[in-house]
């Protein structure tokens, strides 16, 4: 089982990059020389992805960033960064991955000359560094031998090197991949074009089929990959079928972020002029620089994991993961993407099985939602709801076209979790918001009761106790209480309520020592 999980983790990385990792790569149906496009290497491009695995709707997230361009290790280069991290139950119970990759590539060829990896997998922590001595004949990453891509890539450089190829219809690319002393025979075939929809927008996409063969194990994996049909060739959707289940990697955000004022990498120098050929912008993808409000108590990338307890059951009966995914353009709005995923654990699954998720897309300044997606899988019951919210007109519209009248400024279940952290929570202070509950607006009162210390695991943390009540006749029916950290991060530390199953408690599992 452990080996299968490791193979699944390897596939997670291979999906986005390994099929483009040529120690040698040959295009069989193209003209002899393949052009090299600088479009994917535009400094500031950040792509974020949500990864689903088997029955886990949000198993991991991936981030790719063209960080900077300048002089590194004594030569001109482009710095690429990648991050892969599992989340929720997958991270806690199956496979914990939190890896960072940094690669420096030649601007003329896209081939790497130095790479760094920080591997954090369960109890294993390691760092690796590599220098690449590319063949002298390498020019623009191609040789004269029937369009062969020469030189060696790592995971990160390979993703961008593939994007820089023409990806012409009907072309087939064969390559050999070397990873952790294993050889992978890989064939990528461009099969056609089609329109696909994602959270970022609708795209004309290049469709390709990829087959990865592990020579040492005799296994093979099939992938289907979609790239934007423009000069940038953004990976939009990748589908793989491993033995442990299906993996889907879907573009969740695309933005251009402002490069840092000073590069932390060795021997920095002033950034030279960008390539004269500008990439073609995708209309539905954001084209403005991304800036985050500095006064928010949370930042993009924050992940909070909670354990949920019931009386007389010592082990957690469920786990929930809250994440601030990305800031980008969603559904024609600039906003932030929040997610929460909750699943029952083995302690309860003999009685009840649930796997729920909520996505909330909110305005980056007001934190008011403009799109809410809810998926509930509880036993044999499955419920899916998608709401489009117009805060200017006070309406929420279902997928079936049903209009719900709501007060302007109404929150959903998830946006509330984050906006309450921005409130003035001085003791005896009372705040009120409108919240949509079962497609009906209600007034929710957030009352700061008192300051007190709360014990979370082995830590004693100063907190502010709050109560959550509604404008119903029995407004405090569920006796919902929360404890928010008494610092600038305003971390929700604990939540308690009284339900039909008895008292329920949710505790923050890991206390971040610094803001993420």
Summarize the structure.
This protein is mostly beta strands. Helix content is 8%, strand content 52%.
Task: Please characterize this protein's 3D structure.
It is globular and about 70 Å long. A 15-stranded mixed beta sheet has the order 22-21-20-19-18-17-16-15-29-28-27-26-25-24-23. It is mostly beta strands. The longest helix is centred in the N-terminal third of the chain and has 15 residues, at 2-16. It folds into two domains: 2-288, no CATH class; 303-508. The two termini are 32 Å apart. The protein is 8% helix and 52% strand. The protein contains five helices and 29 strands.
Looking at this protein, list some descriptive labels.
516 residues, mainly beta, 8% helix, 14-stranded mixed beta sheet, 29 strands, 2 domains, disordered N terminus
By DSSP (H or I, 4+ residues per run), the number of helices equals 5
Overall shape? globular
Determine the fraction of residues in helical runs and give it as a percent range.
Answer: under 10%
* Rg (C-alpha, Å): 24 Å
- Kindly report the oligomeric state of this protein: single chain
Query: How many domains in all?
Result: 2
Number of strands: 29
- Report mean pLDDT, rounded to a whole number: 79
Instruction: Give me the secondary-structure category.
Output: mainly beta
Strand order of the largest sheet: 22-21-20-19-18-17-16-15-29-28-27-26-25-24-23
* Biggest pleated-sheet summary: 15 strands, mixed
The separation of the N and C termini measures 32 Å
Low-confidence runs of at least 5 consecutive residues: 1-33, 136-149, 267-291
* Percent strand: over 45%
